[in-house]
Amino acid sequence: MGMLTEFKEFAVKGNMVDMAVGIVIGAAFTSIVTSLVGDIIMPVVGYLTGGVDFSALAINLGEGLGGGDPVLVKYGLFLNALISFVIVSFVLFMIIKGINKAKKAEEEVPAETPRQEALLEEIRDALKRS
User: Fold this and answer.
1) Range of the domain at 105
2) Element of type H or E holding 117
3) What pLDDT, in 10s, does the model give residues 68-122?
4) Based on CB atoms within 10 Å of each CB, which residue in 37, 46, 52, 120 is the most buried?
C-alpha cells in the first residue's frame, strides 16, 4: 500500500480532524494555564514568600562579549514553566483517567440477551417444567 493511500485512509477515518481539534484545544488550554500560573498562582506564591517576583529571578553571568547586554539565566521563568507543566500534566492525567474509566465501565456492561434467545430459553424452561 502506498504512502498516499495510507494517508488518505488516515485522513478519511477522522483521525486528522480529531488531532486538529485536540491541537487547537490544547493551544487554548495552554494559554489558560499560562495565565493561571502567571497571573494567579505565582503572585500568591510571591506574596507568601515575602514579595518575591519569580518571573524576575535570574542569575547575572556578566556582560556579553564587547560590553553588550548582561547575560542572564532566568530560572524564575523556568519555575513558572515547570508549574504550568505540572498543571497541564495533572489535567491530562485526570482526563485520560476518566476516559479509561468510561471505557472500562462500557466493557463491563453485560450485553443484553437477544429477544430470540430469551424466547427460546423461556420455551426450554417451560418444557422442563412439564
Assistant:
1) 3-129
2) helix 115-129
3) 788 899 998 898 888 888 887 888 888 888 888 888 877 776 677 788 888 888 8
4) 37
pTM, two decimals, is: 0.56
Q: Taking the CA atoms of 22, 93, 43 and 60 in sequence, report the sign of the dihedral they define.
A: negative
Number of domains in the chain: 1
- 65 within 8 A of 72, measured Cβ to Cβ: no
Gyration radius from the chain CA atoms? 29
CATH of the domain at 80: 1.10.1200.120
- Maximum Cα–Cα distance across the chain: 106
Give which of 110, 118, 90, 116 is closest to 33, Cα–Cα.
Answer: 90
Angle between helices 15-35 and 3-12 (to 10 degrees): 60
Single-letter residue type at 121: E
